Amino acid sequence: MRLFSNQDTPSRSVGGIAAIATIVILVALWMYYQQRNTTAKIDSEDHVLISNDRLNSEKFRSDAWFLPDDDLFGFVEIAGGPFIMGSDPNVDPLAFDNERLTTATPQGTVNLSTYFISRYEVTSGQFLAFVKATGFQLGPRTLSTASDHPAVNVSWPDALAYCRWLDDNLRTSHQTPQRLKDVLNGGWRIGLPSEAEWEKAARGTDGRIYPWGDTPRRDRANYQFTHTLPVGSLDCPECPFGLSDMSGNVWEWTRTPYHQNLQDSLTAQVNLDAPALWVMRGGHYGDPPQYVRTAIRGGADPGARRAFIGFRLVISRF
Ligand SMILES: [Ca+2]
Fold first, then answer.
1. Cα of 248 from ligand 1 centre, angstroms
2. Which of 43, 79, 271, 283 is deepest in the core (most CB within 10 A)?
């Protein structure tokens, strides 16, 4: 379209320039808006993509402690029954020795009762709501990430304190959806997952190596990267139970004391007064593929506050 020419009158030229300036301003505003609503994503060939992430501002309730906006506040039911736990090095050559169920039986079936697990890692926004409500004393870097990123630099006691506050809060608040209240009133409580609960949620019942299958995929989880992403940034339609970031983003605390094989951890009596390392699962944003497998496990000192350790929640009968 021709806007103006040498034959145009001065007034028509001024009008054309104004039209162009208006278009430039509108394009600049549109680009600014897009930038504010985007987040980095990584495709299967390691390209960093920029995608629109308006979803994240819509999926948490600012009027309800920034919990996910559904009738269970983001908790997902995991039906009772068996699953395959542990790693057989004949099946998964990347397996570490500490992923064995027992020394003699590296992989086996474990049966769990029904429980609920949170779809996302606990976010900074959710943790901040707890801090504001209670005056809880933070670590110096605890809320260093944006509100929809996972809460990091949280110790094991910090995570437990959040769980206890949320449990008390949701039992008594009129904001709690009735379906969730019914669950909590049925003898269940909010806490950290056991490592068996965590592993079943991550790999489902078929013993898969990653939540989406048996080969690494950087378009499904945040790893081999430089920083955390907003929780739930990467879609994973193949992942069991619709959970996000079980692999990568941040390691996640569990309520299980660390032992060198799984069976000893599963059967250990929890003694909060005894020195222990606590199991964390799932790997973090900077880890290689081997460290974001569903069976990966590490032990951390309960007081550790690290930029790559966060947590998620369960509702269980523990
Ligand atoms: Ca994670």
1. 5
2. 283
Q: Residue 240 C-alpha to ligand 1 middle, in angstroms? A: 14
- Amino acid 214 reads D
249 Cα–ligand 1 center, Å: 5
**Going by C-beta distance under 8 Å and a sequence separation of 6 or more, which residues neighbour residue 14?**
none
Give the pLDDT confidence of 52-106 residue by residue, as tens digits: 344 455 689 999 999 999 999 999 999 999 999 999 999 999 999 999 999 999 9
What's the pTM value of the predicted model, to 2 decimals?
0.83
Identify the bridge partners of residue 68 per DSSP, sorted by sequence position: 60
State how far the Cα of 309 lies from the Cα of 318, in Å rounded to an integer: 23
Q: pLDDT averaged over the chain? A: 86
Residue 279 φ then ψ, to 5°: -70, 135
CA of 194 relative to ligand 1 center, distance in Å:
15
The alpha carbon of 15 and the centre of ligand 1 are apart by a number of angstroms equal to: 56
Token readout for 51 is: 């995608």
Query: H/E element holding 253?
Result: strand 251-257
Residue 17 CB neighbour total at 10 angstroms? 12
User: Taking the domains of the chain in order of start, what are their residue ranges?
Assistant: 1-38, 57-316
For the structural domain made of 57-316, what CATH number should be given? 3.90.1580.10
Å from CA of 1 to ligand 1 middle = 52
